[in-house]
From TrEMBL:
Keyword terms: Membrane, Transmembrane, Transmembrane helix
Name recorded for this polypeptide: Putative iron-regulated membrane protein/ Iron-uptake factor PiuB
Keyword check for RNA-binding: no
Taxon lineage: Bacteria, Pseudomonadati, Pseudomonadota, Gammaproteobacteria, Pseudomonadales
Keyword check for Transmembrane helix: yes
Parts of the chain that traverse the membrane: 20-44, 158-179, 199-221, 368-388, 416-445
Length: 460
């Protein structure tokens, strides 16, 4: 079956693109499939998580909540003196529990042991491991680790970066191949392979924007490309503003939160460590007066006596509430205040993009859309493998495969085209090193196959 287009750019360009699309789909496809499937599961699990951990998350008591100091004391009595108090998330609404989070031995980075306290009667509803700013619970943590690094830790992050690095290129390559093939007529002949290819193309076209979105937002989390993206955002002044928590002799006495509430500070508790439970109520009250009004928030003590406490909003649904303030626990002065409304547009888009990627920006509609697009990507990959299986070359004593090879097509290109492609490949490799290394692997595989094919022909 002749798959080459009859018109358009040089045939070697089409053949080269087809071969690279094939290599990327065949070799990177499994990684993209795992990332897509785990991403779909992650997006659809908040409701499952709320059901699984209903005992820990909810309470039937009603009435006025007790001071945070008393809730923290109850959590401390439950978990013991060896754990280090790391943060507190007050109950966001009536009928929900407060999370008092501790650092304990044996946890992974960014994990805490959360003790769930009834804010009214101070009863303990259990303890669970929670992860990161999103506060995911064990069920979603397990899925998230599959999506992030296959439960392999830091080395496993290369898998997700490989998937995100190639997804956009494979998607755009598929679009280019479809564009070249759109006017080719197969004399009315419909085969299983052409039918599969039509479905493969249709799914890719419908979900193209989603694939590009997943790739770009996924790369912001990656190790190597993500670091380059962060550096680029910093150079362009697109970075997310940070909160200054450094305290000094001046900032411990006077607020410099851009003039807001200046001169109206009140005396606070005696300075202490993060285990000074009485500080949490005063710090929260001061943050509320400074404009932190979200129901979902976190209070985190300073890591050293020279660092301010941080109160941050963590409601990433729409409208996004992620304002944060730094509070000096000695004077109750707000020493810095970062508002989401003052973020650069690029930083806002990054925040919204990441949250939409996770399926939390617009609630259930966002979850369903992410899951549908991710599962569509899984179907597309399965169709691609099925096409490859149907078209695989038969190896018999009388027939030998004669597929197009990358190096064979490159020899047909002009010097200018070769230099241009080499420049693009080097630039992509420097910006996304995992992609660059994998591209070299593809070329090495192709070179070995080319040499093997040549040797076989010579022997015959």
């Amino acid at each position: 079956m002749n798959d080459s287009p009859s018109t358009g750019a040089p045939r070697w360009g089409y053949a080269l693109l087809l071969r690279l699309h094939f290599y990327a789909g065949l070799l990177v496809g499994p990684f993209i499939f795992v990332a897509a499937l785990s991403g779909a599961l992650f997006a659809m699990t908040p409701q499952i998580e709320n059901w699984l951990y209903q005992t820990e998350l909810t309470t039937n008591t009603t009435g006025n909540p007790q001071p945070l100091a008393d809730q923290i004391t109850a959590a401390r009595a439950h978990i013991g003196a060896d754990a280090t108090l790391a943060a507190v998330r007050p109950a966001p609404a009536e009928g929900q529990t407060t999370r008092v989070m501790f650092l304990v031995d044996g946890l992974q980075p960014f994990e805490h042991k959360a003790v769930f306290v009834d804010p009214v009667n101070l009863g303990i509803h259990g303890e669970l491991v929670v992860y990161g700013m999103s506060g995911t619970l064990p069920f979603r943590i397990w899925i998230d680790y599959v999506h992030r690094h296959l439960h392999l830790g830091e080395p496993g992050r290369y898998y997700s970066e490989l998937a995100a690095s190639w997804l956009w290129l494979v998607a755009l390559g598929g679009l280019a191949l479809w564009w070249r093939r759109r006017s080719v007529v197969k004399n009315g002949q419909i085969t299983r392979n052409s039918s599969l290819r039509n479905w493969h193309s249709r799914i890719g076209l419908v979900l193209l924007v989603a694939f590009l979105f997943f790739s770009v937002t996924g790369l912001t989390w990656s190790k190597w490309a993500g670091a380059n993206i962060a550096e680029l955002r910093t150079q362009l002044n697109w970075a997310t503003p940070g909160l200054d928590t450094q305290l000094d002799a001046v900032s411990s006495e006077v607020s410099h939160s851009h003039g807001e509430h200046a001169g109206h500070e009140v005396a606070g508790p005696v300075p202490g460590s993060g285990d000074n439970a009485s500080s949490y109520d005063a710090v929260l009250e001061r943050a509320r007066r400074a404009g932190i009004d979200a129901s979902i928030l976190e209070i985190r003590p300073g890591t050293t006596p020279e660092r301010a406490w941080v109160v941050r909003e963590i409601d990433r649904s729409w409208p996004t509430q992620v304002d944060m303030v730094a509070v000096d626990p000695r004077s109750m002065a707000v020493t810095d205040h970062v508002k989401f409304e003052n973020f650069p547009l690029a930083a806002k888009l990054t925040r919204w993009g990441i949250d939409a990627h996770m399926g939390i920006l617009f609630g259930l509609p966002n979850q369903l859309l992410v899951a549908a697009c991710a599962l569509g990507l899984c179907v597309l990959i399965v169709l691609g493998y099925r096409m490859w299986w149907l078209r695989r070359p038969a190896r018999t004593a009388h027939t030998r495969p004669n597929p197009r090879r990358v190096f064979a097509e490159l020899r047909k290109a002009s010097p200018l085209a070769l230099v241009t492609m080499a420049g693009i490949a080097v630039a992509l490799g420097l910006f996304a090193p995992v992609m660059g290394v994998s591209l070299l692997v593809f070329l090495m595989v192709d070179a070995i196959l080319s040499l093997t094919g040549s040797a076989t022909k010579s022997a015959n």
